[in-house]
Design goal:
This protein is mainly alpha-helical. It is built from 20 helices and two strands. The longest helix is centred in the first third of the chain and has 27 residues. About 35% of the residues are buried.
Length: about 425
Amino acid sequence: MLMNLFLKNQLKIHKFFENLVILVPIFLITGPFLSDLSISLLSIYYFFIRKKNHDNERVIKIFFVFIFLFYILILISSVLAEDKILSIKNSLFYLRFILFSICFFYLLKNNEKILLKLFFVLILCFIILIFDGLFQSYFKINIIGLQINEEYFGSRVSSFFGDELILGSYLTRFSPIIIGLGYFFFKDKRGFNIFLILFIFFMEIIVFLSGERTAFVLFNMILFLLLLLLNDSKKLSVLIFLVVSIIITGLIVHDGPSKKRIINETIKDLKPKSYNSEFVIINRQYHEHFLSAFQMFKDNILFGVGPKNFRVVCKQQKYNFSEYTCSTHPHNTYIQLLSETGIFSFLIIFCLFLIVSFLLLKQLYFKIFKKTFFLNNLEICILIHIFVSLFPLTPTGSFFNNWTSIMYYYPIAIIFWSFHKKKIL
């Protein structure tokens, strides 16, 4: 019955899912429900379209061998976890992110115009969020009436994210994608250069105002990598460098709450401190989380304590070093993987980071020594997104939550599509 209904309305259903996949960035702004619902539906849709795409099974097999092995390992880890229900529930449904990414790849393969729609959706999101962030910074309230809770958050802007202080992270994570799609679709080079300069200008300001130190560092890391790797003119690179330098200098000189958090507090955190005769170079809370997580890993090297179980196990006396020890997760992707899923899962994700790093280094080698290009600009931008997302030395959200996983798997589909189009895979 379901299959017959699907066949009768196949074109309409397919169009619905094409539109659904480009709306994921908008749904992320509204909270976890709509974004999770959309990728769950897309993961189910994969089973309806996979047979029509059997000619590309080689690409999918490459992806599956790497990622599906990770999935099996976290399932094993879940079975061995202290809170098995919590772990298994999260691990079983983690498959939806993998299937979502493959489904997105199939949709792109059949209709690359999806990327053009995605570009305009992201442009719209960025314009609204940047405007709303600036509005909130000045009036202390956003355009729909959400106020900044200055008692807890000072003057940090969050726009539609409310008490979730992730405005800077959202914009930073999607910025390489929007730049890459811009390079892909803009016909007028001069027009795109103007767009890029304006984009960087407003991004620097709004990410700074968000008070997210990691996002501010990562966005400027993204810009540095783009200047280093993009197949573009030297004049544009110099112009971008000058614009960024002027903006950052202005922001640093400006004496406001954002400067105190991003500049002053960062310098303070980076100064070596001593707690219980131990030197700490980072925030004390992170330091205690890392110590606790690393001890969990040493006690459970192969499979860890189970996905989402750091919050459970950290309460045990031997892992509870102080009042700062316990949290929902250790706030670093790799330390979380080591403590919750063990060495093998960690190595798979770290190898993914190394592969991406190798591809970017190869691009740099070709650009400097062979005066040619290994990757196109869209591929460079997508790989930079993955590189920054997996960069080992940054604080992160939980590896297994909806937000983080979508940020990982969304661009993977685009890079696989581009490689497939070039017959690399």
